[in-house]
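Q: Plasmid transfer protein, please. Structure only.
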Amino acid sequence: MATSDFALKNHNVKAFGQDAALVIEMNNEDVSSSKPPPFSNEIDNYYLTLHVAPRNAKKDYDWGSNRSVLLKLSTNEVMQMASVFLRIMHTLKIDKRKTSH
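A: Structure for Plasmid transfer protein:
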């Protein structure tokens, strides 16, 4: 699959639970104005964000509240998360991170 085909597809994963919901979203940084590094390709501009939202009293999810968390994941965090999904590791702990609310 060419990267242009890849960019046209929706790459979001949503999971809803009784107490919270999460979305893992693939994003593409716009670097059209900057000169690309010599040893990179178009796929290097993609990154993942993790958005976790708690459930409120109305049984809706508070995506925009100050209780929700939005993180841009590093490559290491993505690999750790994949290890949990593949059951290589039991837990994932993200510490000491600045978050967007």
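A: Brief note, in case it's useful. The chain has a mean pLDDT of 79.
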